[in-house]
Design brief:
The chain is an alpha/beta fold and 210 residues long. It has one domain: Uracil-DNA glycosylase-like domain (Uracil-DNA Glycosylase, subunit E, 3-Layer(aba) Sandwich). Helix content is 43%, strand content 11%. It is built from 10 helices and 5 strands; from the N terminus they run H-E-H-H-E-H-E-H-H-E-E-H-H-H-H. A 5-stranded mixed beta sheet has the order 2-1-3-5-4. Helix 1 runs antiparallel to helix 4. It is globular, with a radius of gyration of 17 Å. The two termini are 20 Å apart. The C terminus is likely disordered. The structure holds uracil (URA) and iron/sulfur cluster (SF4). Uracil binds next to helix 3.
């Protein structure tokens, strides 16, 4: 299966998923969106009111601010993948529960494996907790860390920066650093070719001999 097909398959599964209680309150699940060969994946928390209505990530106020921040980094939404740790809206936008995070993680893991991004940017504490358990966002934001075959950067959640104006300069600065950090990640990983172009070289018939 190509990366595009894998992402479409995951979106289909998510649309009817009942693996955690959040399916009760969702209108539309939000699998996430963006090119299958994205070099950068943004991972937020979970769908809010507008995302639940439209089935698309970051389309409300936080999404508008995210679009501005992407422009700050010279990026367009269509250049990157954007999704969340939980694909269905928690009622009243409450925090996702541990069992909801663990039930939904399988989808995110498969999305990451399919896209194979160079950089994962965590937005908010739940996605940060996946890669940097116990880290404090106030001291780690904007720093790029190697995690396995890619890099992870924790950033403030755009909604947090909207509510606490004091965070706004910091999040703007972190996004402005992104082009430089992406160059560093490309150089360190030595794979500047987008992953979707990297089709398996083995002949499938050969593999089936084993
Ligand atoms: N906040 C999130 O964390 N994710 C969204 O998709 C929208 C708002
Ligand atoms: Fe399934 Fe994730 Fe939605 Fe829970 S939040 S029902 S695990 S897609």
């Amino acid at each position: 299966m190509s990366a595009e097909e894998t992402l479409a398959q995951i979106a289909k599964e998510v649309s009817t998923c009942r693996k955690c209680a959040l399916y009760h309150s969702r209108k539309l699940s939000v699998p996430g969106e963006g090119p299958a060969n994205s070099e950068i994946m943004f991972i937020g928390e979970g769908p809010g009111f507008y995302e639940n209505e439209q089935g698309r990530p970051f389309v409300g106020a936080a999404g508008n601010f995210l679009n501005e921040l992407l422009a700050e980094a010279g990026l367009k939404r269509s250049d990157v993948w954007i999704g969340n740790v939980v694909k269905c809206r928690p009622p009243g936008n409450r925090d996702p529960l541990p069992e909801e995070l663990s039930a939904c993680d399988e989808y995110l893991e498969r999305q990451i494996a399919a896209i194979n991004p160079k950089i994962i940017i965590t937005l908010g504490r739940y996605s940060m907790g996946k890669y940097m358990p116990g880290a404090k966002i106030s001291s780690t934001h904007g720093q790029m860390r190697r995690v396995g075959d890619r890099f992870v950067i924790a950033m403030f959640h755009p909604a947090a920066a909207l509510h606490q104006v004091a965070l706004k300069p910091a999040i703007m600065k972190d996004f402005a650093q992104l082009p430089k950090l992406l160059e560093q990640a490309r150089a360190a990983l030595k794979r500047s070719v987008p992953s979707a172009a990297e089709e398996p070289k083995e002949d499938p018939k050969q593999l089936s001999l084993f």
